[in-house]
Structure formats: structure tokens, C-alpha cells
Amino acid sequence: MSEPIIDQGAPSPSGPLGYGDRVKLTGPKGRLNTITLVPGGEFHSHRGVIPHADLVGIPDASVVVNSSGEEYLALRPLLSDFVMSMPRGAAIVYPKDAAQILSLADVFPGARVVEAGVGSGALSLHLLRAIGPDGELFSFERREEFADIARGNAAAFSGRVPENWTVTVGDLQEVLPATCEAGSVDRVVLDMLAPWECVDVAAEALRPGGVLICYVATVTQLSRTAEQLQRSGLFTHPQSSETMVRGWHVEGLAVRPDHRMVAHTGFLITARRLAPGTVLPSLKRRASKSEFSDEDLASWLPDLGPDGGAATGGAGWAPEDVGERSKSDKILRKKVREAQRFAEERGADTAAPDDVAEPGSGD
């Protein structure tokens, strides 16, 4: 029988390794294993054992030897490592995109940020680190299971659910006005299926000059969001981009691109809130083949046609239509348990702060 997990305090971001810390162990062939240090625990491979007690108290980035004499490099994972290995209920925002979101949206210490949806909490962790203890993050999620997974992952990373993080379960259009006063938010980050539906409510919450940034997966979502931002008259001309990162193999004279890369994950579209009553000047461009009419737009995006989409009623925007793989309720409940157990292994307090909202009108 394994020893009970004792109170081991919050995981430390630096310094000597301790119980509750996540540790990356890299073996002699470069194989990577990530473990959580617990009293009485052991790391087993087919070639030996490393007791967790042998790792406790040693400096970060040390080399340890297993029972058969093989050496392992022990490193505390970075935030980017953590989010790639934590339990997931929904697809995460990859670190390459999270970094761009923080930069393009200019998320600063002390900012008041709105995020929807929360998913598995990967982007939430990046935003919480960027705003610091003086900022506030208001996250909105339509599914209670995703919110529970995100809370568990956040508690596992920092030792507790951050006090400056509010997670509200419900539809953003309905619950944001009741959560944040008009004109009180610095940044809004939308990672959802149909962000164009939330352009007006995001504009109401943002201060003049505040940034709205949307993360979407497909070109049809990108086009639809851009058109809605322009038609609203509430934002500057939107800017769109895609981030691709290609690693390189560098060893002696063998210098070449890696054979594999994480290519397309999503598009980012960014715009800034105009001051009330401001009319944005039209861009002066030469006539070109890119000119289009409402009829042209309707053939590409039916709900933006001359009839306003009455014929379609907004149908067709389901997760499966844009390539998302939805998980069953059974799998999601399993992921919730994994996230909570993950947090408990790290000695984390999974209790939500008093100001976490009760479930609303989510799915």
C-alpha cells in the first residue's frame, strides 16, 4: 500500500525540487517522462528505478542515477511543458499561439481580462501569469465539465485556484454584462466556435482602446469574424495572422529543418475598441479584383447575405463542421477526475474562491 499524500505546500516555480513538484526526466536515449513527486513514489522504467525521495531536495536541472546506473536529467517543467502534459477536456491553445495572444493583445500586469471559453485552462494559465496578482481574469465557459478541468489544472500548477480568477459557467452574451461593468475591461480574448456573435457584448465591456482578439480554426470563421467586426462600426480595422513554428536539427555539420512541425493550429484576428461615437475613416484603396458585393459575400457566408441569414438561421456552425472532435460526457467526467487527482498529487487546494460564479445557462 502506498503512503498517504501529506500536505506538501504549493509547487515551487524555482529552487530545489520538492514533493508536489512536476519533474521532467530525460533518459540516455532522449526519452522524456514527466512525473509528480509524492512521498513513497517511484519512477519505473524497464531498465531501473528512481525513488522520488532521491529527487527531493536536489537543485533543478540536476542529473540522477537509477538503480541500474543510467543517468537521467531532472528538470522542473516550464509553463509551456506543463500545459502540453496536463489533463485535457477540450483542445488547448498551443504555447505558440498563447505567446502571440499575449503579445498582440498587449496583456499587461494589472489588466482586467475577459476570456471565453476556458477549455482546459491552458490559455488561462498564460493570461494569469501575464496579468500578475494585481490583475483580474474573468473566464467564461459553457460546459461545467470544462470549467472543472480548468480549475483542477490551475490548482495543480499554482497550488490553489488563483484568487484573482473568476470562472463563470454560462453563455458569454448573457452573463458578461452581469459580471463586468460596461467599459471596465482592458482585453477580451475569444476562443469559441462563433466569436462574431459576441462582438457587441465584448465592445460594451471594453474600455476605449481596449483590444479584442479572437482565436479561430478555419478560414470561414476568420472571414465571418472580420466582416462582423467591420460591420459593427465599434472597432478599428481588424488584423489577421497565423503563427507557424518550425524547429531545426542542429548537430555538428548536420543543420536542417526538422522533418515534423506544428503547422496550422488557428488564426488570430485582432481589433481595438473605438471611443463611443467615433466613426472610423474608410480605407482608401484602388479598385481591384478583390472587390465584392453582398451577393458575392452571401455565396461564401450565407448568414451575411442581403436577407441577413434568415434562410439559414445561423445553422451549420457546429463543432464538427469546423473539424472539432467533441468528447462524450463519460470521457469528460473522467477528465475531470484526472484533473482533480492531478491537483491533489501536487498538494494543491482545489477549492474555488468565494467569488466563483454558480453555473448559469450553459450547454
Automatic annotation (TrEMBL):
Residues 298-363 are annotated as: Disordered. Pfam families: GCD14, TrmI-like_N. Keywords: Methyltransferase, S-adenosyl-L-methionine, Transferase, tRNA processing. PROSITE patterns: SAM_TRM61 (PS51620). Residues 322-348 have a biased composition (Basic and acidic residues). Residues 84-250 form the tRNA (adenine(58)-N(1))-methyltransferase catalytic subunit TRM61 C-terminal domain. This is tRNA (Adenine-N1)-methyltransferase. It comes from Leucobacter rhizosphaerae.
